[in-house]
Amino acid sequence: VYSRHLLEYPAVGRYSFTVHVKNIKNKTVVIKDGESVDNLAKPSPVRTCCGSWTNVEENKLVNVDPFRRVKLGSVKNLIQVPDPFSPDQIAPSKIVDLHIKVLMESTSLLATWTAPGDNFDTGSVSGYRFMFSCNIEELLDPQAEVQPLVTFRRKDNAGVKT
After folding, report:
1. Which whole number is the average pLDDT over 53-71?
2. 142-156 as b/e, with b when 16 or more CB fall inside 10 Å?
């Protein structure tokens, strides 16, 4: 299953869609015959690609033969597109690969992640806020007033490893 969304269009008009898909050598895999995602025991992520991860163990995967697919999609006639100067309507995607490393020699922390976009996973972000709370409910409640641990402005394009 392939899926993707488009959030920005240059203008009102007629748009046709064609999807091109091809494998990435030694990265595109499927679950081996006889294996099932129902009987996976290992809960931690073991394989990463493109900012995504899976908990399927390596020995249950097999590389796929080279392939290429082209699918002609529908034609859409857009009679209205969002004003690019209107207030932001779409939240950035969440960071799913945050890694924190303790630097013992300097008693510091090093954080790395893949930058989300300004509009879900497109565009660029203008900054970050690291939040901390002893109560997870506070972090999940949009109405809670949690104080940021660190805030900084930094423009990163979506998908860039930070």
Report:
1. 81
2. eeeeeeeeeeeeeeb
